[in-house]
Every structure is written in structure tokens, then in C-alpha cells.
Amino acid sequence: MSRLTPALLFFVALGITVTAAPPVNVEWNPPNLPPAPLEGPSLCVGAYLEPAQGQAMLNAALARFPDRASWDAYAAHLRQRIQENIGLSPWPQRTPLNAIIRSKRVYDGYTVENVAFESVPGYFVTGNLYRPLNAKPPFAVILSTHGHGSRVKKPADFENQGRFTASVQARGGTFARLGAIVLSIEMVGYGDSIAQVGEAAHKRPFTQTLQTWNAVRALDFLLSLEGADPTRVAVSGESGGGTQTFLLTALDPRVTLAAPVVMVSSYFFGGCACESGLPVHRSKDHFANNAMIAALAAPRPLLVVSDGQDWTQHVPQIEFPFLQQIYGYYGVPQNTANIHLAAEGHDYGPSKRAAVYRFIAAHFRLDLARTLDAAGGIDESHITIEHHGPLHVFNEKFSLPPDAPQDIAMIERTLQQLQR
């Protein structure tokens, strides 16, 4: 008899029907898709499909899985394959986080602190913690992930990278002013992680494994904070941070709301090794594009933000109708929404942030009035945008521990040892 993994058993608690013997073939796939390689992993990199092929794949999935029971069976299979192929099956042992929280700054309605924790012994996930000043517990918690940026050639380049950007700071501070606790973390080989493993580490396929595990441990950290509300747990990020958003949501049932920004597509799979360097999308018995992975959020609230100048340009016509069908299987079509900004491009700009603020505030019962102007628009003018210097966890005053491993291969071996 087939056994359910612990991750799948968690989804049973959500009321999601999980069968022990899901479909184990891809015969339902439409014709004329790229053939899988005869040997080696089936990697789906970048624009792996044409838009018409992506749409045909979603149509074929709806035909093959026309109701909740059949979709739940395939969804359970997808989760298992994603967890296996991303390198996290079995789940690694959870070791002490040894969290560092320091350098508190007080601003208008919120505070900012610098945070580090060990996702595996010796590897430090670094970020910033935004907390409300004028709200009472319990607090909703939000994990903020970021997309790709330019390389750091001089210190000033940090201003335009990852969690140091004005966009990430704005959404952290704004959500804190609304009454939530927000943690922004950075990708492997970005920000303070550069000092430990270098920028080149980001291009290794293992980065996809480690970033997913970092996000899981980030939820461990957030939910360990005093006053954190485990019933209101959101994750949102743009581009590569959007990939992190829907992968974490697919695998971790503690996420109760997801808002991937400018990433959900039926034909584009992610162009970096941290998104498509491992066969999470395709194997001999599974195939899922990013719209199908995003659908694994159902029935939890899901906001998809898209634009007119990248691979999300077809979301209103292709990906969102698919998501509505899946959510309809659970009787909650109102739990998914799409904000499409046809005149905009690939970013997490003010109008995209405004859409996410409103969606999360509505579902988490946050006080949106705290960030509205007289006309009812979103007002971020109360947010202090810091230069990158104060946001660093490790600096001249607080150095990276000298025994922290700086070889990403050593960190990979450590993670693998935690799976024995």
C-alpha cells in the first residue's frame, strides 16, 4: 500500500482529499510539447514552452482532472514530486535557528531590526524584521521574498539589490503599519549572503533547494515570535521571489495566503538555476507548469499580479481562468484574484504593492485605513527608506562568525546529512 508523506498528511488537515495512488503518467499532456531527454534530468528552463503550448497544457489538465477528487489526487502527486526533485525528501531535521535580532530602529508606526538565523548549522539566512508599533496581538505574519537584481561591484550597488531596495522596504514598513509582522529575507548569494558563500553560489542548482528550505525555516522563525498568529501566514515576492512564493505555498501548509507577483505563467518556468535548475516541473510521471504549481495553493487565498510586458502578459486570458476553475472545485472561486496591469512591466512597483496590500488586508482583517490618503489611495509616505548600510546584519561592528562555512558545497553536504 502506498504511504502518504508527512507533508501530504498536513494537507489532509486543510480538508484537501489526498489519495494514496494518484495518476502516475503524463499521457494526458497535449501533443507537440518538447520531448523529455532520454537521459538526465528533465529541466524546464526559461520560456520552455510557447504560450499556445502552455495554454494547451492547462486545457489538457482540466480535461484530465475535471473535478476536485481527480485534481486532489494529481496535486498530491505533484507535491510529492516537487519535494523529491527539489532535494527536500525526506524533510531535513529542523536544527536550532540560533536567531540574531539586533539594531532596532523606530519609525512612524513600525520598527525595523536586522535578523539572521541558521537554516542549517552554519548557514545564515539574513534579513530584516518589520514590526508594528500601534497594533495588538495576535499579529499576522508575512514572509517577503525578492527577485533577481544586478551584481554588486561596489558597495553602492547594494541599494538596488534584494531586500535593500525601496520596494522591499516599502512593503515591509507598510504591512507593519497595518498591524503585521514582516520578515524580508534574501536569496542565496545576495546581500549579506555574499560575504558567506559569494555571488557565484546563486547560480548552482542546489540554490533552489536551499532557498526553499530557507523559506520553510523563515516561517519557523516568524511563528516563534511572541504574538504571531499561525492562522494568518502570507508570503509574497516578485519574479524569482514569486517562484519562491508558490513553491513554498505548494509545500508548506502553514502558508494561508500567497501573492506571487509577475511570475505565474503557463509557458515560462524561470530563467535562473534557483528556479529551474532542478527537475521540479517535469519527470517521467509528472509535468507541471508554474500556473499548475500556483494552483496548489487552493483553496487558500491566492492573488496573482501580472503585467503586459513579460511572460505574465496572458494571465487574464490563460492562467487566471485555469486558476478559477481549480478554485471552483473547492467551492471558493472568490479566494483567487488577478490584478493585471497591462501598461506596466516586470517589477513590484507602487500599483502592484497597492493591490497586494488591499488583498492581504481584506483576508487578514488588517487596518487598511492606516495607510490610506484622503482620496482612499495607498499612502507610503510614512515609510523611511534606509540606505543599505543600517540594513546589513553583518558589518564592521558585527562580523560573520569566523567558523561559518563559506563553501556552498559544504552547506549542501550538511543539509543532506540532516536528511538521514
CATH topology of the domain at 100-391: Rossmann fold
Give the spatial strand order of the biggest sheet. 1-2-3-5-4-6-7-10-11
By oligomeric state, this entry counts as single chain
Number of helices: 13
Low-pLDDT runs: 1-6, 12-23
CATH architecture of the domain at 100-391, by name, is: 3-Layer(aba) Sandwich
**Shape descriptor:** globular
Strand residue content = 15-25%
Provide structural commentary.
This protein is of the alpha/beta class. It has a domain at 100-391: Rossmann fold, CATH 3.40.50. The strands form 2 sheets. A 9-stranded mixed β-sheet has the order 1-2-3-5-4-6-7-10-11, with helices on both faces. A two-stranded antiparallel ribbon has the order 8-9. The protein has helices spanning 6-12, 51-64, 68-85, 166-177, 193-197, 206-224, 240-251, 273-276, 290-294, 319-329, 350-364, 388-391, 408-417; strands at 100-107, 110-120, 123-132, 139-145, 181-185, 228-238, 257-261, 282-283, 286-287, 302-307, 336-341. The chain has 13 helices and 11 strands. Mean pLDDT is 94; it is low at 1-6 and 12-23. The two termini are 23 Å apart.
